[in-house]
Amino acid sequence: MTTKEKWTRLQQQQGRVRMIFEEVDCAALLRKAISLGQESIIEWIESSGLRGRGGAGFPTGRKWRLAAAQKADRKFVICNADEGEPGTFKDRRILEEQAIKVCTGMALCALATGAREGIIYLRAEYSYLLTSLEETIQEFHLLLKKLDLPFDIVIRSGSGAYVCGEETALIESLEGRRGEPRNKPPFPVEKGLHGFPTVVNNVETLVYCAMIIERGAEAFRRLGTKDSQGGKVFSVSGDADIEGIFELELGMSLASFVDLFGDGDTKAVQVGGSSGHCVPRKKFDETVIGFEGTPTGGSMMLFNSSRSMYHILHNYLEFFEEESCGQCTPCRVGCQQLLRGIEAIKKGEKDAHYLQELLRLARTMSVSSKCGLGQSVANPFISIAQNFREEILY
Amino acid sequence: MCTKLIPKGSGEPGAGREALLPRLQEIHRQKRWLDADDLLEVARDLKLSPAIVYGTASFYSFLDTEPRGKHIIRICRTIGCYMKGKDEIIRTIEVRLKIRLGETTRDGRFSFLAANCMGWCHKGPAMLIDEEVFTELTPQKTLRILDEFIRERKVRA
């Protein structure tokens, strides 16, 4: 396909979804939600099949229902705008262009769960968005007042810690602590911020919630596949003919994804950012992008044959070594040792057999680390080390 | 000096520990790093131990606890920007400012640091100067941006 043909096809495919970046009348949407009432809002979100768009993929409706069932003096809705996964940049554009819909999604969650306090946790790297977000929130507060909705949103900034995208680390950070993840259970829906029930949703998830109320659960459910319903905003980068932010259906095969975006020489795609899986060319056909196959928080990075997979893995491990919060040993020491290990193999200080040891270490980290960060280091490590063994060894 | 920067009393978002990060962030916004006096002052004000305040501040990579220049340049070193040639941009900045990555210029104008993914992978290489983002950097573009910052400082001084 020529680049022009790719764009034409891309337009068609995007045309089938078109939710996140569409303008909607948020006042009318909220009025509709108020008339639906708490139970129906949760039912709509549940029956839509929406799962968290930040990467972990927890069913959003169930999360809201769990929080709604809690009896508490205070409840919180937190918008997780700590988008830090390498290769992901879609939430930035959503916050730039559709902040009002993000706020609306938060208000829907408040209606559904009985929360009165909302917080947007914005990563420090996006501080230039603060002014425009503050303006949107002010505007939104006026709307809430008109509708007589007792809900309030504030913005809090992060300070450059990837791990704070993990919901309990984020809550720790909001409480003025080091961003070290908590043990679960209790989950935030039971005991979150200051010990009160808290829903933490990703930016994109909240906007989809707004669109589900706007267009109905069926409009969302008919997109995607049985296990991966709806659309998804992808962040495409790397050795790609077409890069940027695109909203497409879930459940696409990686082969057709690469046809659409690749430069004709794609040898691997990292699906789901540095904590996701690296899929080699021979598995493009069988790989489904979605919860039943290879899930992604949106990050899709393409590598062509000019890239050294050793250097890519090295870059990922440097990232994890730096961003590990250091709280639990498997992750803190594991990240360091994996990085040192592949360096030692490359320099010839260790033989090829040592790679097996490193793979075992990665597996150990995936079962023994406290949070998703340490648990998912094994994803890129194993998928790259096994599929591109020669490039790591020689 | 630090007492002037630290708002007294229980302002937004409320007293207690949850005010810690916003306080530290505010001081950092104004003077680009947190010295021991700042940390002690905040600790006294929030009735927290200095160790807790330092422990929290030093956890976050954007809360510098070492002296920094008037402007902090943070270049993205993660995969997307790596693939798009961040090393060349690092060399360009090092040569122009006559410092290495991680250092501060002698005149205290610039600190040059590396940061992790800042969400511009499709438009790398990217860097932040203070809170402003610059993308699709080439050596020429980087030099132009640096010169603007250098000139602007001279005019103000």
Overview of this structure, please?
- The complex is a heterodimer of chains A (394) and B (157).
- Chain A has helices spanning 3-15, 26-36, 38-48, 60-69, 90-97, 99-113, 130-147, 167-174, 203-215, 217-221, 254-261, 309-323, 329-347, 353-368, 372-376, 378-387, 389-393, and strands spanning 76-81, 117-122, 152-157, 198-202, 231-238, 244-249, 266-271, 277-280, 299-304.
- By secondary structure, chain A is an alpha/beta fold.
- Chain A has three domains: 19-221, NADH-ubiquinone oxidoreductase 51kDa subunit (Rossmann fold, 3-Layer(aba) Sandwich); 231-304, Ubiquitin-like (UB roll) (Roll); 309-393, de novo design (two linked rop proteins) (Up-down Bundle).
- In chain A, the strands form two sheets. In chain A, strands 6-5-9-7-8 form a five-stranded mixed beta sheet. Chain A has a four-stranded parallel beta sheet with strand order 3-2-1-4, with helices on both faces.
- In chain A, α6 crosses α9 (203-215).
- The model of chain A has no long low-confidence stretch (mean pLDDT 96).
- By secondary structure, chain B is an alpha+beta fold.
- Chain B is built from seven helices and four strands; from the N terminus they run ααααβααβββα.
- Chain B has helices at 2-5, 20-31, 36-46, 50-57, 79-83, 86-97, 139-156; strands at residues 71-76, 110-115, 127-129, 132-134.
- The longest helix of chain B has 18 residues, at 139-156.
- Residues 9-14 of chain B have low confidence and may be disordered.
- At the A-B interface, β3, β5, β9 and α12 of A face α2 and α5 of B.
Which labels suit this protein?
heterodimer; A: 394 residues; alpha/beta; Rossmann fold; Ubiquitin-like (UB roll); de novo design (two linked rop proteins); 3 domains; 5-stranded mixed β-sheet; 17 helices; 9 strands; 48% helix; globular; B: 157 residues; alpha+beta; 4-stranded mixed β-sheet; 11% strand
